[in-house]
Amino acid sequence: MKLNAYHKRRDFKKTTEPQGAGDSSSDIASDIFVVQKHHARNLHYDFRLAIDGVLKSWAVPKGPGLKPAEKRLAIMTEDHPLEYADFEGVIPEGEYGAGTVEIWDRGHFEPISDLATWEQKRKLEFVLHGAKLKGTWVLIGFKNDPKNWLLIKKQ
Ligand code: MN
Question: How many domains does the chain have?
Fold first, then answer.
């Protein structure tokens, strides 16, 4: 199942993060993005796009760039359940990702790239309609490096 890695890392008796139905039964719209500011050991921004019924996720240390051509490192992390888009709160000490999570921006995600092939092509272009993030961004994967991507704001 898609959320195996997500479930394996968490003890749902200890964290209040959503377990996720792992199917389409969630109330979360299937075409959203969310950016969560995560005050963990290192502050970062978790950038998540709803694709194929999960939130594809990247940790962006500096947060998404707001100026065209600004490149931001985006480290791909495990898929999260759609329900995670609503999550804010404190992940307890000792648990995976311990620290505070707050929603920094959220809105409609409009893909430009073909969602069937972006992972293979390692390029995903999209439009975000958020409160803070408005416009076109592209994620470009490093060559021979499945985890590391660049998130770049387009003109
Ligand atoms: Mn995080």
Answer: 1
